[in-house]
Amino acid sequence: MSVIRRRDFLDKVRATYWFVPLLMSVGAALLAAALIVLDLAVPNSRLAESWLILHVPPASVPTLLTGLAGTALGVVGVVFSITLVPLSIASSQYGPIILRSFLRDRSTQVVLGTYSAEITYTLVLVLLLPPDLTDNNVPQIAVTVAFLLSLISLAMLVYFFHHVAVSLQASTVVEGVSEELMATVRTEYPEHGTQEPPAAASEALLAKLTPAGQTVTATGVGYVRDVDIEQVVKTAAEHDLVVWLQHHAGDFHEIRVVLDQLEVAGIIFRQVHFNVFYRSHAFSYPFLSGNLK
Q1: Nearest to 220 by CA among 261, 276, 287, 260
Q2: Which residue, of 42, 74, 111, 261, has the fewest CB within 10 Å?
Q3: Domain covering 199-291 in this structure, CATH number
Q4: What is the pLDDT of residue 1?
């Protein structure tokens, strides 16, 4: 996978509500299985006098676990449905950027993942319960952890209300957009020194490049999401090319719009690929064999 595709994939994954909850749910399922094994290895008689362990009658264990799972499922559904109302109002005032920021917000993803983990943990625990529950084989450690997860979910719910109220404020929105912009600038344009090329040399190069270069046009419609600058520089160095990139990430292109021009310093080359990644597709533009002067 190329750098540009990997970077775009990670950006898309970060702006989803399924990746973090999926990881936390898988971890919760593994935790439930591990605690069942631990409960089988530790006799309940050793836990009888411990005040840290929740002692639940065998007949009440399935009801307690299914009740915790049902409560968590109902709470997370209602809360996130209600949250869409102020979010839609805020997006109409601040623009679509608030939706993207809310999707990329790690705190919101962790809150959703906490409830997903609690639901997964309790359901897996119900499935792994011994068919004949008695006072000797009740998984007391696992049931205690399920109760603790419900308390953690309640605390995360209170935090979520506060976080949403703060994140929808104008100052917070502007701060988040500014931080993301500066992070993108530092990533895309790292400091390589302050030496600038002479203006006369740049103007002379562009004057030569415009009539002599080969034009590469777009074959699709959409926004340019990213450009693999490192690969472009590497390709230009290998084939002695000068690439003039006329459009950058964020520009909207229609079919036949000029993407860039290049000039070959009197050499013959076989094939060069220049990758431009669109919002929905990645296009590879080949420069065919030829002697361009």
Answers
A1: 276
A2: 74
A3: 3.90.1170.30
A4: 58
